[in-house]
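Narrative of activities, Objective 1.

The group set out to show that a structural description can be obtained from nothing but a protein's sequence at a throughput compatible with the screening campaign. Below is one input-output pair from the validation batch, recorded exactly as produced.
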Amino acid sequence: MANQRRTPGSQTSLREANRARIIAAIKKHGSLTQVELAGVTGLSPASVSNIVRELVSVGVLRTSPSTRSGRRATLVSFARAVGLVAGIHVSARHMRVIVADVNCTVLSEHHMPLARDHRADNELDRASLMLADMLGDLDSAIDELVGVGLAVSAPIERATGRVAGRGILRGWTGVDIPDVMHRRLRRPVYLDNASNLSALAEARLGAARGKQNVVFLDVGEGIGSGLLLGGQVLHGHNGTAGELGHTIIMEDGPLCRCGNRGCLEAIAGGPAIIDRLDVPGGTMKLGDIVLRAMVNDGPSIRALAEAGRHIGLATGNLCNLFDPERIVVGGDLARAGELLLGPIRVAMEHAVIVDPTRAPDVVQGQLGLDAAAMGAIVHAIDETNVRAAAM
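Output recorded for this entry:
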């Protein structure tokens, strides 16, 4: 029996390592042709073909005919039988739930508004019930989930799974979020900050594909950023890296919800913009400001431009620290397009130390308000042992 052990240099170990490389490549890049798999993994086309055939036979992968550059090709992706993945995004005022397969194909989506200062226990209960209903509509069940990604619009302590910021999602303070959700679903739960996961999603599926060093700006009720360096999310020592909205840009400025004064979010975030425009007793929302600006309402355009200028200056400082190649802007206010992106771009280019022609490009996110939930799905897939789930 001893000579049957899998030693590091054995053919069995090598073949398992090559299988893992192919699975990892599809996790990272999505569906690929066999030729593309060979290029990404460095394996020979014959090795790729043999391993794909083996993984198809055990239900991990599936193949389908496709074309590349006008030539017939075989597209390789994960099999539906591997399981499903859920992505949940909880922000200050909204919750979004998406169910997808392990190829990141969306199968069901639902979102709902949330009350201010909502509580973790209530919303996690609602998310669990909503998820069960969505799976039922797909003739599936909770036990078919191989993982659940959870994106929360607040700084997260990675070591504890708790909200780190003072005054941010106050109804969630002190809650071990992954543990609470795991007890409700009995499935693996993977938590991260929403801006981090949005950056990951845009890099894998959206406006930052192919880029290794990316800043995602999440501009809406709050202002956050996700930092992708060398293709990896930067979490920092405590897990709270990227809190751009809580960098102080005006000493003794307006009070921020985090307890400090003069934070970028208190000056250029959604509530600050609304306060500048709303009449007493009004009920203006961020979407109203965006729509007014898009039909050439002067005060709304100026309010967005002023916010964009502040955000651009702060982003320029961030660029001088991390030197990204692309800035992706998402969140509620990103729907204003160039009315917001233009002022951000101009202010950032004045603040960066590199020649403006070499400054990072500023683009609108492609995933819209689904970015964080899709990032939660990508994160859960990355953390899931797909082969073990299928076998």
